Amino acid sequence: MTKLEGWSRRELLRVGGLSIAGTLSPFGAPEGLTCEASHPKKRCIFLMLQGGPSHLDLWDPKPRAGKEVRGPFNPMSTRLPGVAFGELIPGQASIADRLTVIRSMTHKFTNHIAGTYITLTGSTNQQDRDREAHPDDFPGPGAILNHLCPAQTSIPNSVSLPNWLSIPGPSNRMPGQYGGFLGPICNPFLVEGDPNRKDYNPLSLTLGSETGLARLQGRQSLLKQLDQTARWLDRDKIQESSRLYQSAYELVTDGRIRAALRLNDVQEDERDRYGRNRLGQAILLAKRLSQAGVPWVGYNEFNQKWDTHGGLKGRYESIVPPLDQAFTALVSDLERDGTLEDTIVVLAGEFGRTPKINGDAGRDHWPNAYSIVMAGGGLQPGLIYGQTDNQGAEVIQDAVSPGDVLATVWKLMGLDPSTTIHDRLGRPHPVSNGRVRHGLIG
């Protein structure tokens, strides 16, 4: 990392007293690039349950299998005749007729980081092991939007919250979330922190008067002067720093984003409906940012929260109900507000869990077969897509890859998955190597 890269992302705005928690990034393509796609026609909220939720205990129960496969939870009926979910997700069972459940997800990576990378990028060009993010990585969806579709307003193209997914190492950067070979200039904007805190204020700035705006404009002028002192760096880095503070300046002065982030202005019953916890309030915030016009909002669950090698019953009784409450509220609110048809919701982990309960009363990593849940955006509601065998171990009908999911999402958003992007060596890559699954589209 060059001196200005590190400075521009955390310190550049802080010099003038304007502090934004997290990593700053621009909301458009680098100068000189031609936008290869129109502005996204629909929005996406992508909820990443990092760690690997168990398909057998949630969306694909096997009540006729042996006890070691069935696990500790009973199946429950849903709004769809003949379709059962696990007993811990009654909210999703009650709106199953509005969901699109893929029970036939599959890939070959058993490692958390590799599984997360393929889930967020669709790329199979990797080893099945721990590693940190690298500049040659395939870019995440938010970065692709930043590259191809420069924001037409001060509304950012992509936001991640409430944290980056991290991995122990020098940089703590888990691959798949960033700009990769498109460069850090295409990183999503990180809105960091716990939205359930009473003092939550991710922009760390109060602009309540003309005086406040004038002071901010003065700080912007100061930053421009500071930029002039950085001529010892190459021109591209100077342009990057300029776009960074200009984009952040536009964001914090845009009333739509500021209003979306003011959770203290939200009615108590709405906040209660999502759950008064970090996850619930973050998903509420994701909805508000999406409805403010952000095309891609990514929610990152706390690192490996869903990794249950032991004690699955007690762990799931703790973590599943808050997720079910928030996800059900999200889909229901989007439908009530009339925005579900224009918003794709994805709830996914990086893989599933082993068919048999292990000796520690948990389940281990299992990418051979697992489930994800989607809703809205032109998807076919009330659809159970694909099938696993009687132990939930292997896909026996309509196998779907993470790349296929991303290709289908791009198609629904109005972006051709075959659209070409280029890496740092100028080599062409399609936005997705996956196949659009037209059977998922209503």
Quick rundown:
The protein is of the alpha/beta class.
Arithmetic mean pLDDT: 85
Structural class: alpha/beta
The strands making up the biggest β-sheet line up spatially as: 6-5-7-1-8-11-4-12
Cα-based radius of gyration, to the nearest Å? 22 Å
Helix content: 25-40%
Largest sheet: 8 strands, mixed
Beta strands, count: 16
Number of helices: 12
For the termini, the CA-CA separation is 46 Å
Report on this model:
- Helices cover 31% and strands 14% of the residues.
- Helix 1 (3-10) runs parallel beside helix 7, helix 6 (210-228) runs antiparallel to helix 7 (235-252) and helix 10 runs parallel beside helix 11 (312-336).
- It contains twelve helices and 16 strands.
- It has 442 residues and is of the alpha/beta class.
- The longest helix is centred in the last third of the chain and has 25 residues, at 312-336.
- It has one domain (3-367, 395-440).
- The chain has helices at residues 3-10, 67-70, 90-94, 112-121, 141-148, 210-228, 235-252, 255-261, 268-274, 278-291, 312-336, 402-413; strands spanning 43-48, 75-77, 84-86, 99-105, 158-161, 189-190, 296-300, 343-348, 352-353, 365-366, 370-375, 383-385, 387-388, 395-397, 420-422, 428-430.
- The termini are far apart.
